[in-house]
Amino acid sequence: MENVKRCARCILPGSYPGIVFDEAGVCNFCAAHERWTPRGLEKLEEALAPYRGAHPRYDCIAAVSGGRDSSYMLWYAVRKLGLRTLAVSVDNGYVPEQTKVNIERAVKILGVDLVVKKHGHVRSCFPHTMRAWIRRPSPGMIGLLCGGCNYALRYHLLETAREHDVPLMLFGVGEPEPPTTFAERLLMSDPNREMSKPRLAAGFALKIAQNPAYIANPRVVVTYGKEFAYRWSKRLRNLLTRRIAYPEYKILEPFYYIGWNEEEISSTIARELDWKKASYAGAAWRSDCTIATLKNYLYGRTLGFSKVDELLSNMVRTGMLTRDAALERLGRDSVISEDFIREFLAGEGVSYEALDRSLARSGTPST
Ligand SMILES: [Zn+2]
After folding, report:
1. Distance 306 CA to ligand 1 centre (A)
2. Under CATH, what is the fold of the domain 35-304+337-362?
3. In angstroms, what is the span from residue 3 Cα to ligand 1's centroid?
């Protein structure tokens, strides 16, 4: 892994799409970074006020993936904010057992109701998409492996909001992420250019043309289409998720008010909720979905870096970690067991050997 040129301030590698270093070896993402300050608890209380006690049973819905951040947010909503909370988890069929245990334990300890919604969008597409990907490995198409999940997640959360007549929804999104992540950039016709929707669409079309196996399955095409439309514009998103039928619906992201502190989050959920990360995951980060782990594995194999490099770099920029600590953690957090990947793929009817051979044959493709 080392002998890689990395930014002198954060730890992004020279192979990161769109990266440019100045004379001092500092990357353009560090140069453009604006320090972000949480809006504060007072502003959060202001935003919550209209919803407190406004509905008979619940003040809010909390979207809980069973991962670290959303578990903390659920705890915070109940114990710190005193909100009557309905926990909702959306199961795409790839939620690790430990993660389900985390959710069940958390709602029991906190004494809140839980609604579990299931969908088959990812399940019905993943094996097909994975086999197509193996025919021509492309880092830009790794994101397609969970195509349908974003759309389905929002759809089912909104459906729950309607069913229970609770217009306020809390999302546990808060980890510092850059405005565009490398996964999106890789899909563009030229990942080093500035992010734009036409470039994204052109890049996607080109990749499909290079490997039409992706669209050989009609069910998969419908799901990709929905996911793409969902990401394309707010209007299409609202249409697809039938948001139009519930205009009062409001999303609040508490971390933007209270700040995101990894140490505080990790220690609180371990102490208060007996939360545990999925056993195979090197990092506690994204231990709520097996496909997220597989995607990171594939980024590592094709690009030599993954979302872990990106997250740690953001933590350095926001002052949560020193550069040395980030490098040290990178060595640990990036480790994903090959046996785990082999076993997971076997369960999906996909051959690890075929993947390995294909990756070896294609070397390190640029996009
Ligand atoms: Zn940097």
Report:
1. 15
2. Rossmann fold (3.40.50)
3. 17
